[in-house]
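User: Fold this, then the next.

Assistant: Folding the first:
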Amino acid sequence: MTQPSASATPLLFTPLKIHGLTLPNRVVLSPMCMYSAHNGLANEFHQVHLGQFALCGVGLIFTEATAVSPEGRISPEDLGLWDDSQILPLGRITDFAHAHGAVIGVQLAHAGRKASTHAPWRGRGVVPVEQGGWTVIGPDGQAFHELYPVPVAMTTDDIARVTADFAAAARRAEVAGFDVVEVHAAHGYLLHQFLSPLANSRTDSYGGSFENRVRLLLEVVRAVRGNWPSHKPLFVRLSATDWAPGGWDEFQTVELARLLRYEGVDALDISSGGLTPEQRITVGPAYQTPFAALIRREVPELAVMTVGMIDTPERAEGLLLNGDADLIALGRPLLGDPHWMWKAAVAMGVKPPVVPAYERGTRTTP
């Protein structure tokens, strides 16, 4: 990771080199589930949805959580990379992004006990088997919520299989042309479930102590790094805290970050929560950024991305100038206004980062 020298250009629009890849600016499209795939296959919706951000100058575009196995989907409509047939549809999207100078990454995920659930507009909780649902797995037999499926506790063979699934998905991601891979270990999904004592009551080598609870994530990261090109960046998304007593917290996150650094991780995507319905979150503008700032301060060798209620370019720029983060991930702001980057550039007095065909739309004079 390299930092730019002082210049008049706002940090938000300054390139950032991470490992062997240079991002054109510091804005990242945060992974957001679209619940629009069939059998894990990307389609025209995903091409248009993700492609618009390539045309609008977003520095790094991430897909939604992309399942490494069928039972790892959050919903039946999630994207997947568990089968070779899923490579080509995603490859069309990466080809389009690259043709327009964009950088694109894939978030690899397994939902664990939060799998087999409805898309938000179709209901809440478990999808019955007769409606396309499936048996879910987790660290133990605790369900996330009474409306969610009861998981089957994973055996060591299951753990080895899931680790291999992540590795195989990373290989497919390379063939599909992605520039970045992110391992999803946040928001109460499988790898986060193993991290938190609130979801992991195992008594074997994958439960109990901190060293045991982080074991699966470290093994997955090791497997992904071994199957992902050495010159391409590897991100990990973490929930810095469960926002619940006795759960995972920011101090454990710092210790984990120090370990991930030695596993070939280049950047951490710092979010929070999602592990338990008992969470009590203090919400406000940039409310998760203090966690990112802590990790960036304690583990400066890693690039750090922050996310959450960062809605204006001025706020994003302030966080960068303050040294709280290296990258700003935007979800709802970009979903609500795909031209957010254009408006931010105009507000900050820089040329909007658009493709030539769109330049007329950014001019303020005839």
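Now the next one, as you asked:
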Amino acid sequence: MSQNDEKQLLNNRLDKCRHKLEAAKSRADKSTIFQFELEIKQITKKLAQMNHKDSFDLNKERKALLAMPFIRELTKAEQADQGSLKKTCKGLVIVHPLTKIGKQLNLEAMTGFAPSKF
């Protein structure tokens, strides 16, 4: 199971627990209220850990890209023929502005990051 799927399942469980908690509060069922409050805390903690790990990994990748010596926006011709561009430059990483890492880097256009000039 991918991490996004696991997050979605946890969010669904959290939503379900919150609804059941509200129902238990309306019935004034103390044992059920305690049980769902405990489960909500556990799920929230797990989601926070997963989100922190995601942001840590994204930040690590961002730092690695920014450490590369050659960074420039790709021309329309290069964007159209990325295969040949990647063959000419070893280690080239192309980042689209609408991906997570692209948004983190505040990119305006497709940008190439490479260890050597391209």
